[in-house]
Amino acid sequence: xxxxxxxxxxxxxxxxxxREVPAVRMxxxxxxxxxxxxxxxxxxxxxxGEKIVVCGPSGSGKSTLIRCINHIxxxxxxxxxxxxxxxxxxxxNIDAVRxxxxxVFQSFNLFPHMTVLENCTLAPxxxxxxxxxxxxxxxxxxxxxxxxxxQAEKFPGQLSGGQQQRVAIARALCMRPKIMLFDEPTxxxxxxxxxxxLETMKKLAEEGMTMLCVTHEMGFAREVAxxxxxxxxGRVVEQAAPEEFFKHPKSERARTxxxxxxx
Amino acid sequence: xxxxxxxxxVSYFFNYFLMKGVLVTIGLTVAAVVGGLILGMGIALLRxxxxxxxxxxxxxxxxxxxxxPLLIQLVVIYSGLPQLGIKFSVITCALVGxxxxxxxxxxxxxxxxxxxxxxxQREAAWALSLSPWVTFRxxxxxxxxxxxxxxxxxxxxxxxxxxxxxxVISVEELMRRSDMLMQEHFQILEVYAAATAYYLIxxxxxxxxxxxxxxxxxxxxxxxxxxxxxxxxxxxxxxxxRA
Lengths: 263, 243
Ligand SMILES: Nc1ncnc2c1ncn2[C@@H]1O[C@H](COP(=O)(O)OP(=O)(O)OP(=O)(O)O)[C@@H](O)[C@H]1O
Ligand SMILES: [Mg+2]
Known about the structure:
Mean pLDDT of chain B: 89
Order of helices and strands of chain B: HHHHHHHHHH
Number of helices of chain B: 10
Strand order of the largest sheet of chain A: 6-7-8-3-9-10
Bound molecules: adenosine-5'-triphosphate, magnesium ion
Mean pLDDT of chain A: 92
Shape of chain B: flat
Distance between the termini of chain B: 36 Å
Shape of chain A: globular
Number of strands of chain A: 10
Oligomer: heterodimer
Low-confidence stretches of chain B: 221-241
C-alpha cells in the first residue's frame, strides 16, 4: 500500500480535483488500426466501486476499450484518466496506472514455466520489492480466497481452465489493484467451469472492487453490474442499468444483439 | 594383405596424433557455438528491431550465410582475403568462417524462439507492472530458450560434423589428421573407421546432453508446452544440410 502511494507522490501527475475522482474517465477517445477505427469518440466514466459490464458484437471494440485503460493498447486521440492520473504515454504515468489496475485475460496468460505460487509472487517481489516470505504469505492469502491454496506448487499446465483463471485473478490481486479489468474471462472455459470463475468475480464485486468486465454472461451482468455499456463499431452506443438495458434497449442494434445472445 | 584389419582400426582409434585432432574438432565446435550464439543473438535482435535498415541488414546477413556453402566461405576467408591484404592464421580463418556461418543459423533459431512466445505473455507481464528487464529475464527468455533447445541441438550436431570442412584449409582437426594418416599408411578403411567412431561418439554424447537439457527445461507443464512447441514456427534452419 505505502509503496504505491509513494510511487504516486514521487512521479505521477495527479489531477487536482475537489470532488471524488472517478476510477476511469475517458473523453473522446479514438483508436485506429491503419484505416480502421477501433474506438470512435468513446466517452466513459466509471465511479469508484462501480461494476461495469461491457458487451457488444464481435469486433465492436470491447477488448480495445479495456486494453486502452492500462495502456496495453495506446489510444491515438482523446484523454484517459485512471484514478486521476492521465495516460499521456509518459512512462511514469503508465506505471502508476498499471499499478492501480489488474487485468484478467480470456486465455489466462499464466507463465507456464513457473508454479502457481511463483506466478503470484513474481510481481510483488520484483516490482514492489517485497521479501520472498512476505510475497508468499500474500500469494497464499489470495490463492485461499480463490479457493485453490492446495494447488500452489503445481504448474499452470496441470490445472483445469477454471483453476487457471482463478490463479490469474489471484495473481492480479497480489498487486493490490484498485480497478480490475476482465476481458471475456470465461469465454475459453468449458461450461462446467464458468460458474466457479463467476463466483470468484462476484465475491470480488461484493468486496467493493471497481470492475470493468467484458463478458457475454448476461446472468452475471444482471446480478452484479451497476451499468451495462453496449458497444458497436467502436462506439459506446448505449449505457444503462441492467434492468433497463435488458427490458428496454434503446437502439435497434442492441435489440438484435440481445435477441442473439439470450438464446 | 587382408581386406580389413580390425586391430589396425583399433590402433588408429588410440593413435595419439588422431586424438589430438579430435580435441581440435571439439575446440572448433565449442568456439563456434559460443561465438555463433553471441553474434547470432545480436543479429536476431537486429532482425527483430523496428528499424528497417537494421532489420534489413540482419536479414541480408542471414540470407547470405545460409545461402552459400560453408566450404566457399572458408576458402574465401583463407585464400581470397589475402588478395585484399587481409591475412589470418589458419585456425583463425576456420573460426571466423564457422562463427559467421553458425551465427546465421542460430540467429534464426533465437528469433523464432522469441516469436513463438505469445504476445499474451508480455501483455500479462506489463499488466503486472513488471519492468522490461524482468519481463525479458523471467518471462520471455526462459520460454523462448525452452523452444530453442531442439533446433539448437540439431544445429550443434551438424556444426560438429561441418568442422571437418576446415580440413580443406589445412586445419589439423580429426578429418585432416585422418587424411594424413591415410596417406602415410594407405589403410583407408581402417583410418576412416576410427574417425567415424570418433564422430559417432561426439554426436552421441551431444545427443545425451541435449536430452538432459530438454528434460531439465521442460520440467513444467509438459503437456501444454509440447503443444506450444509443436505449433511453434521453430526454425528448420538447422536441419538443412550444410557444406
Ligand atoms: N492489432 C490489431 N491490428 C488491426 N486490427 C485490429 C487489431 N486489434 C484489433 N483490431 C480490430 O479492431 C476491431 C475491434 O477489436 P476488439 O478486439 O476490440 O473487438 P472485440 O469487441 O473485443 O471483439 P471480440 O468479441 O471478437 O473479442 C476488430 O475489428 C479487430 O479486427
Ligand atoms: Mg475481445
